[in-house]
């Protein structure tokens, strides 16, 4: 069980990080995500880190890389579910996750992605929630 | 990272199983889920097992227990994302997950929960997707 599963909800891909990420699993995740975005035409990616207790510069870079990859497919990325202790540590370490959008929880993240998708016309007008794609 | 995170999307709670589950983590998950259903009034629970490579009678019983707990809160449970090899093994072992509803993937699972919620009136009429609660 070393591959992080990627779930699809409408036009959004959801990644819930639960395992300790090492070089190999991060590379595999980035590859899998790129393939899934390309295959599904998703307009957004949510990375949930509510199970993550430690975020270091390695993980921070991973978020930035995933966001950059997604952008090449015209998809937005939001990191959600950060624990308070993680946020404090990040700021203390001077890691501000610049360029990576964050939201309190999955629902707020999906709301942000919906607004971004509608503003840019990537979510069809007849689909107010942006979740009806399949 | 031994607690399985529970995500909320509208009236549905989502559990993505990625770690090997042992007695303690299964108990913790059941407890957490019962508390979250009770706190949120969710009408459905989706358990994603796309990362799970082996399902034995222990895990099978866990699904049934979670479904029974959910039912006490008037919530439906769907297990989604089963790998083909897991399905074959389950049938070979005679474990048919009786009483536990299954679906191909997260989206189909959420569609089933939406239909069940609408039929029973647990999803308000003004909310066609069943995802607009927050």
Lay out the secondary structure.
Two copies of one chain form a homodimer.
Chain A: E1 6-9, E2 12-16, H1 23-40, E3 44-48, H2 57-72, E4 76-80, H3 84-92, E5 101-103, H4 106-119
Parallel strand pairs in A: 2-3, 3-4, 4-5
Antiparallel strand pairs in A: 1-2
Helix pairs in contact in A: 1-2
Protein architecture, described:
The structure is a homodimer of 134-residue chains. With 134 residues, the first copy, chain A, is of the alpha/beta class. Chain A has one domain (6-119): STAS domain (Transcription Regulator spoIIAA), CATH 3.30.750.24. The first copy, chain A, is 43% helix and 16% strand. Chain A has helices at residues 23-40, 57-72, 84-92, 106-119; strands spanning 6-9, 12-16, 44-48, 76-80, 101-103. In chain A, strands 1-2-3-4-5 form a 5-stranded mixed β-sheet, with helices on both faces. In chain A, strand 2, helix 1 and strand 3 (44-48) form a beta-alpha-beta unit. In chain A, helix 1 (23-40) packs parallel to helix 2. The mean pLDDT of chain A is 89. The A-B interface holds A 1, 3-5, 7-10, 14, 16, 18-20, 48, 50-53, 81, 105-107, 110, 129, 131-132, 134 and B 1, 3-5, 7-10, 14, 16, 18-20, 48, 50-53, 81, 105-107, 110, 129, 131-132, 134.
Q: Largest sheet of chain A, described in full?
A: 5 strands, mixed
The chain-level mean pLDDT of chain A equals: 89
Helix content of chain A: 40-55%
Distance between the termini of chain A: 27 Å
Q: In the CATH hierarchy, what is the superfamily of chain A?
A: STAS domain
CATH level-two architecture of chain A: 2-Layer Sandwich
Sheet with most strands: strand arrangement of chain A = 1-2-3-4-5
Cα shape of chain A:
globular
CATH topology of chain A: Transcription Regulator spoIIAA
**Regarding quaternary structure, how should these chains be classified?**
homodimer
Count of discrete alpha- or pi-helical segments spanning 4 or more residues of chain A? 4
Number of strands of chain A: 5
Largest interface: A-B, 27 and 27 residues
Which structural class fits the helix and strand makeup of chain A?
Answer: alpha/beta
Count of spatially separate domains of chain A? 1
Strand content of chain A: 15-25%
Computed over alpha carbons, the radius of gyration of chain A is 14 Å
Please report the first level of CATH classification, the CATH class of chain A. Answer: Alpha Beta
Order of helices and strands of chain A: EEHEHEHEH
Organism (chains A, B): Umezawaea tangerina
Protein name (chains A, B): RsbT antagonist protein RsbS
Domain STAS (chains A, B): 2-113
Pfam families (chains A, B): STAS
């Amino acid at each position: 069980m070393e591959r992080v599963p990627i779930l699809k909800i409408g036009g959004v891909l959801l990644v819930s990080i639960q395992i300790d990420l090492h070089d190999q699993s991060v590379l595999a995740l980035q590859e899998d995500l790129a393939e899934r975005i390309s295959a599904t035409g998703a307009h957004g990616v949510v990375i949930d880190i509510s199970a993550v207790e430690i975020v270091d510069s390695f993980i921070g870079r991973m978020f930035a890389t995933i966001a950059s990859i997604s952008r090449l497919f015209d998809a937005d990325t939001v990191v959600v579910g950060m624990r308070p202790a993680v946020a404090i540590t990040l700021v203390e370490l001077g890691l501000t996750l610049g360029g990576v959008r964050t939201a309190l929880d999955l629902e707020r993240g999906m709301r942000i992605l919906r607004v971004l998708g509608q503003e840019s016309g990537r979510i069809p007008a007849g689909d107010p929630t942006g979740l009806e794609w399949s």
